[in-house]
Amino acid sequence: MSSTIHVEFLLCIMDEACEEWKQKFQKFTVELLQNILLVFNVGAEYMTELSKSTTNDKQTIEDHENVERIISKLKHIKTSLGNLWPKTITCFVRDAFDVGSYHINVDEYFHPTPFYQNNPFLMKLYQWSVYDVNRKLVCCYFLETTQLPNHPEYYVLGKTRLNTHSQIYPYGSTIPDYYQMRMDVIKDVNGQGPQPVVTLTRNRHNMEMNFN
Prior knowledge:
37% helix; 35% strand
């Protein structure tokens, strides 16, 4: 059975839930938060399953298109709820997969989000959190973009580990396809990625930039 049939059903449920929330709640409540998390968790399960295949056949293309439809609906729910939306939720789970003994959770931000609180120019759009077998966070990857006045946006796959922040894959001025980024993360986790282009070393007193 085509995945589209199941996705259509999911999207209808999401629409109905959103309309019900707007009628039932006049302000943010814990009950509303629980309802939102439930719907978004179901969406994450669908997207994770639909993202598993990376072949370029008709079914995979359809699955990936349906992932984008679910993402559009999740973003629509946030916009539709307006002030009811919990301000603490800035992203949603869009994928999860294993690479060897590592488990990776993927979050997509609703909007470009500052990477550092005191830096309005470096933004993050996606985050891949890598965990070991003990579910300890090992490192994180990010799709980052710089937003400088009078300059085009520039996209790069970044990586943070301990006190370092490195740039792994530069993508240029065009936002890359999610599945290309996914493969780049997998390559780097497997030790097959390139040497970092730029590494920021942070401590309490300073930040040093090293060009490799």
